[in-house]
Amino acid sequence: MTEVQAALADPVGTAAVPDTMRGAVLFGPDDIRVVERAVPLPGPGEVLVKVAMCGTCGTDLKIFGGHFPQTPPFGEFIPGHEWTGTVVALGDTVDEFRIGDKVCIEAHAGCGRCDNCLVGRYTACLNYANPAKGHRATGLTTNGGFAEYAVHNVKALYRMPESVSFEDAVLITTAGTGMYGLDVAGGFVAGENVVVFGPGPVGLMTVQLCKQMAARQVILIGTRPSRLELGRQLGADHVINAREVNPADAVLELTGGEGADLCVEASGGVDTPQQCVEATKRGGKMLFVAFYPDRVSLDLSAVVRKDISMYTSRGEGGNNVKRAVAMAAEGKLRGAELVTHRFGLDDIAEAFRVVRERDGDPMKVVLVP
Amino acid sequence: MTEVQAALADPVGTAAVPDTMRGAVLFGPDDIRVVERAVPLPGPGEVLVKVAMCGTCGTDLKIFGGHFPQTPPFGEFIPGHEWTGTVVALGDTVDEFRIGDKVCIEAHAGCGRCDNCLVGRYTACLNYANPAKGHRATGLTTNGGFAEYAVHNVKALYRMPESVSFEDAVLITTAGTGMYGLDVAGGFVAGENVVVFGPGPVGLMTVQLCKQMAARQVILIGTRPSRLELGRQLGADHVINAREVNPADAVLELTGGEGADLCVEASGGVDTPQQCVEATKRGGKMLFVAFYPDRVSLDLSAVVRKDISMYTSRGEGGNNVKRAVAMAAEGKLRGAELVTHRFGLDDIAEAFRVVRERDGDPMKVVLVP
Amino acid sequence: MTEVQAALADPVGTAAVPDTMRGAVLFGPDDIRVVERAVPLPGPGEVLVKVAMCGTCGTDLKIFGGHFPQTPPFGEFIPGHEWTGTVVALGDTVDEFRIGDKVCIEAHAGCGRCDNCLVGRYTACLNYANPAKGHRATGLTTNGGFAEYAVHNVKALYRMPESVSFEDAVLITTAGTGMYGLDVAGGFVAGENVVVFGPGPVGLMTVQLCKQMAARQVILIGTRPSRLELGRQLGADHVINAREVNPADAVLELTGGEGADLCVEASGGVDTPQQCVEATKRGGKMLFVAFYPDRVSLDLSAVVRKDISMYTSRGEGGNNVKRAVAMAAEGKLRGAELVTHRFGLDDIAEAFRVVRERDGDPMKVVLVP
Amino acid sequence: MTEVQAALADPVGTAAVPDTMRGAVLFGPDDIRVVERAVPLPGPGEVLVKVAMCGTCGTDLKIFGGHFPQTPPFGEFIPGHEWTGTVVALGDTVDEFRIGDKVCIEAHAGCGRCDNCLVGRYTACLNYANPAKGHRATGLTTNGGFAEYAVHNVKALYRMPESVSFEDAVLITTAGTGMYGLDVAGGFVAGENVVVFGPGPVGLMTVQLCKQMAARQVILIGTRPSRLELGRQLGADHVINAREVNPADAVLELTGGEGADLCVEASGGVDTPQQCVEATKRGGKMLFVAFYPDRVSLDLSAVVRKDISMYTSRGEGGNNVKRAVAMAAEGKLRGAELVTHRFGLDDIAEAFRVVRERDGDPMKVVLVP
Question: Which of A222, A269, C324, D293 is the most exposed place for a label (fewest CB within 10 A)?
Answer without folding.
Answer: D293
